[in-house]
């Protein structure tokens, strides 16, 4: 016999769940020290899933707090010209994101439940904050003199409860005799009672009916990337812009490139993709974009080969190398050291290519004489 489902009523703090992050950034039970248990109640998969989702929402807020307090990022509301009443989203930026003259790093996560500052919720809950969040990238970038912008491409709408529309029935028309109206009301009340009873039996915890109000010019990850480019990245002082884009974030970057090809080429120095799901054919990226990607992008893909081993590509876009893991969600964390090395080398190569040809030639002559 199926058990009665307990109320879908969960705590709204980590303490309420009796969990906390330890000094290693691992989520542990306050009393037992055990990792998170998904099957908290056996045979109640839906309830366990709802509990996991409730914890996930708390994790999202917790990461937002870390971005502000631990990484000293500022939360910036978008659209920038939003009215008081319209739906809004936000991104995070370092103090110097728009003024740093040298370097700017832009981070884009994949699709799904993740929000700004996260690579994978599953990793944050089951492994640790280092592997599951973008915080190690942000801290190292800032240590190395980068400005930082953290995108929030999945925050596309706000949810509000659907208003109940009261339709005036014919029995409410004034011309009808009172007796007839009462009889009709009684019938409709009985029908409603039966329907409510059936609903309760079929779905004992009927959740509220919600509607989505989309955020202007940020209604999809692709729209969001374009919006942040136009209003922030394109306005930044940085001579070298670098992107780290995971999974669907890679597709959003390619879409941005299709929409703003000349601007991206003049401002972006290198792009690190991690198990990106972009497809240059399906997205109809032109030849000039594909050529630029071959020169300036690298995709660290899930593979059992050692880190940075070259991986065969079916598509003629950017080089693919192993991320040193065959787990999709771990590709960003595992390729972390290689990505920074790639950016440093790209930056040096650009600096060298911009030196006057004469200087390079005279240097070569001197070298040959030696």
From TrEMBL:
Superkingdom of source: Eukaryota
One record GO biological process: regulatory ncRNA-mediated heterochromatin formation
GO molecular function: siRNA binding
Pfam families (alphabetical): Arb2
SUPFAM superfamilies the UniProt entry points to: alpha/beta-Hydrolases
Amino acid composition bias (Basic and acidic residues), ranges on this chain: 177-190
Gene Ontology cellular-component annotations: nucleus
PANTHER family, A to Z: COTRANSCRIPTIONAL REGULATOR FAM172A (PTHR21357:SF3), FAM172 FAMILY PROTEIN HOMOLOG CG10038 (PTHR21357)
Protein name: Cotranscriptional regulator FAM172A isoform X2
